[in-house]
Amino acid sequence: MAYRRTDSVEARLADNRNRILAAARTLVGEGGWPNAQVSHVAAAAGLATGTVYRYFPSKAHLCVEVLSTVSQREVDVMRAIADGAGRPAQRLHAAVTAFVQRAMRNRRLAYALIAEPCEPEIDQARLTYRHAISEQIVRIVRDGQAAGDFRACVDARIAATVIVGGFMEGLIGPLSPLNADFGAAGGQDSLAVQDLAGEIANLCCAGIGAPRGRVARLPSASSSSSLPSRHATRKAA
Known about the structure:
CATH architecture of the largest domain: Orthogonal Bundle
CATH class of the largest domain: Mainly Alpha
CATH superfamily of the largest domain: Tetracycline Repressor, domain 2
Structural class: mainly alpha
Distance between the termini: 79 Å
Number of strands: 0
Helix content: 55-70%
Number of domains: 2
Radius of gyration: 21 Å
Oligomer: single chain
Order of helices and strands: HHHHHHHHHH
């Protein structure tokens, strides 16, 4: 008779796996991929090193799962925006703004997910989820072409590739552990992040905007309160 795991055993196994992933994610968020050594992850999760290997045969497998879990959330956010209300130009602006702002919440983790050198397996997973994000941008671009917000003469997939490449490349400097322009982790200048997100989103929209310039500059959802910009505030001061 085949052995069947009891509900309590299944729950314990699932709990161990979740603890391992949570510990690994925290360690990557503190020091990047090099920080997620299996022995360090095991200690942080309160488990034996051998237990971690029962769930993940190597550090690369564990890190791929961390990247996949976090990246899927970003794909889900992009999908929700693509499915949402509003003109396509507004949705594109909102999608780029959301990605930038969410990345800046945990700069060290986002830097690892987007740009930090890593094992080939991690890099392949990175490309997979970058493509998944691009697919959501393709949907918005095609909607915008049909609505007249975006130029119809460009290939939607090429446009999406350029847009995704643009906002991810634009984040590398701000996300870098060596960059002190946005303050310490957890205490970054919220106005500086808002300005960064808005500028990157405006450039992405302007690059594909219809000739009549509907999307030359669009306000982000968070700017509806008409707050003065960080630069204007400093000048007035």
